[in-house]
Amino acid sequence: MMQTFIVNFAGQTSPPIIHQLAKITHENGGKWLVSKINYLDEQVSGLIKIKMPTQHIEAVKDAFTQQKGLTVYFADSTDCSEEKTSDDQQNNLYNMRVDAEDRGGIVHDISQTVETEHGQIINIESNRVFLADSLGVSASMFSSHLTVTLPTATNIQDVISELETLGMQANVVKKSKAKQS
């Protein structure tokens, strides 16, 4: 019998260790269905959705938990191939980029705007850029790439209009309808 679960981890490790964990999963009949792994300086965080034979799950979980410097959590999950609900089929997926003058609470405001329009943020990656002149830092700019789902009844232009009101120079500069998998 096959089972699907999610591994959530954070701490210090290296790409070769992550590769070794993938190899252990494969050797035990499992596969990584979805993985999101990010490195920042000496730190790593990741989410991995794994499907594998039930009898080998503990061996793979042990391989993750035995890694020094990593904090690891596990959660049961469903397989990606299971049928989607009718609500899932009524959503559109969009990729956007929001650029604005940086200020406190901007990520919260973006999240609230999407939720108010009955949407959900699937992924968000944000950066802050400091602009300097000869006197030092004069401004801070915020840039965020988002993937959001919106009900088909929600017009993406309404969401864009709301996002553009978040800051004096807020501007949604890229939008595209993403493909659903």
UniProtKB/TrEMBL annotation:
GO BP terms, alphabetized: regulation of DNA-templated transcription
Signal peptide: none
InterPro entries, sorted: ACT-like_dom_sf, GcvR, UPF0237/GcvR_regulator
Keywords: Cytoplasm, Repressor, Transcription
Annotated localization: Cytoplasm
Main location: cytoplasm
Cited Gene3D superfamilies: 3.30.70.260
GO CC aspect terms: cytoplasm
Top-level taxon of origin: Bacteria
Protein name as catalogued: Glycine cleavage system transcriptional repressor
